[in-house]
Design brief:
Number of helices: 13
Radius of gyration: 22 Å
Strand order of the largest sheet: 6-7-11-10-8-9
Distance between the termini: 21 Å
Helix content: 25-40%
Structural class: alpha+beta
Largest sheet: 6 strands, mixed
């Protein structure tokens, strides 16, 4: 059964904000940031004239120390680094359209101007991003729209719309089927609803994609554990993982979404959902009882990929994506899928 539903609030490297992947509040934030940009533009407008030399990805300016290609590569790293900011700006790596990036050299100030667009997931509205990068000292970077810069620039890069390439990680040894590691703490905001996205990916790509659920016991499950005990809190992650091993995972995901309210889900409710969705009860019970060691192993995998919050997917062992952008990551990693 096909079910395509947007995730409520992705949280990876991203913090939950509102409905539909946490982008309602992003929209409000962008309004404020646009005001900041307008203010900056006014300052520039009344300042001294700036001589701009247009550059592209193949032509460098003879008076500049760096080439447009080098500046572009740095800008991709800057964009990826926003993932670590604890605010709506952490969505920037996944909504940026790097194919729109333009690089220009400002002769008068010895700076590079980097411009590109991004798109709001919810309403499809595009807006502008930009940086000024000092040519003689590229660690001096001035954001134009974002108003803040990440504390540390990572070696990760935004390589396509909604796709981050993880530095030091490489494509899976076996290219087919394409691997998708779906990291999720079900109690995290957007976690339960992301299971619908995961089941949709499974259904859409069938045997061409091997999607496996990886349980991440994060602060949200631990918070529930502080209320009811960690042993009981772990039933939801365990049932989600075990249900993902069966063919009617989509039925389980839909039934769970129907009853989930963001609070603790007792074992009895989960057992009822299993019966309702037509899963093999014997296999589920056996899996739940034996899943602790598997979940502990998955925690090590999350650590390897520096996963700190969820839901988030690692595609082809090398690319990071939100639930909403997994299809883009699949197309980037394996164009034959699209």
């Amino acid at each position: 059964m096909k079910q395509v539903t947007k995730v409520k609030e992705p949280s990876i490297l991203i913090r939950p904000l509102g409905r539909f992947g946490g982008l309602d509040n992003l929209h409000l934030t962008l309004v404020v940031l646009v005001v900041i940009l307008l203010a900056l533009l006014l300052v520039v407008s009344y300042g001294k004239p700036i001589l701009v030399t247009q550059s592209n990805n193949t032509t460098s300016n003879t008076s500049a120390v760096h080439t447009p290609q080098q500046i572009r590569a740095l800008a991709e790293r800057v964009l990826a680094s926003y993932a670590g900011i604890n605010s709506s700006l952490s969505l920037i790596p996944y909504i940026s359209n790097i194919s729109s990036m333009r690089v220009s050299y400002l002769n008068a100030s010895g700076q590079w101007l980097v411009e590109l667009t991004a798109k709001n997931f919810v309403n499809g509205v595009s807006f502008s991003l930009g940086f000024l990068i000092n040519d003689s000292n590229t660690s001096k970077i001035t954001p134009l729209l974002q108003s803040v810069l990440p504390d540390q620039i990572s070696n990760n890069r935004v390589v396509s719309s909604g796709v981050v390439s993880l530095a030091g990680k490489y494509a899976c040894a076996n290219p087919k089927p394409t691997q998708v590691y779906w990291f999720v703490d079900p109690y995290a905001v957007g976690g339960v609803q992301s299971l619908l996205n995961a089941s949709s990916i499974k259904d859409t790509y069938s045997s061409n994609v091997n999607l496996t659920l990886k349980i991440f016991v994060g602060t949200d499950t631990q918070r529930i554990g502080s209320q009811v005990g960690l042993f009981d809190a772990l039933y939801l992650p365990k049932y989600a993982f075990c249900a993902s091993q069966q063919s009617n995972f989509a039925g389980f995901a839909m039934a769970l979404n129907d009853v989930y309210s963001g609070n603790y889900v007792p074992k009895s409710t989960l057992a009822s959902i299993v019966n309702e969705s037509g899963l093999n009860v014997t296999q589920i019970n056996s899996c739940v009882n034996d899943s602790s060691s598997v979940i502990n192993t998955q925690a090590l995998l999350a650590q390897y990929y520096n996963i700190t919050s969820t839901p988030v997917a690692v595609v082809d062992c090398h690319y990071l994506a939100l639930p909403q952008t997994v299809r883009e990551a699949l197309c980037y990693a394996n164009p034959s899928l699209c």
